[in-house]
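Annex B. Sample input.
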Amino acid sequence: MMLAQGNSDPRVCALNLLRTIRGEVPLERTKGIDREHIDKPITQSDELKADAEWVLETYEPRLSGEEIALLAADAAGGDYALEASVR
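Annex B, continued. Sample output.
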C-alpha cells in the first residue's frame, strides 16, 4: 500500500517491505518476506523474524535498532501479526 505522501520516510519504507511478499516486485524478486512463512506454526516464528530482519537490513539501511516481534491476536485461531519497532 503506497501512501499519498511520506513514502520516503524510512518507517513507511519498512512497512511496505514487510507487507510485500517475495517475488511480487518485478526485477527485484528477493524484496519482501518469503511466502514459505505463510501458514507455518508459531513454533517456527524465529525463521519469520530472521527473514524480516534480513529484509529490513538489506533494503532499508537508514533504519537502526530493528526489533521484530510476532504477536498473537488470536493464538487458538491462528491469527498472528508481525510487528517491527524501528528507529
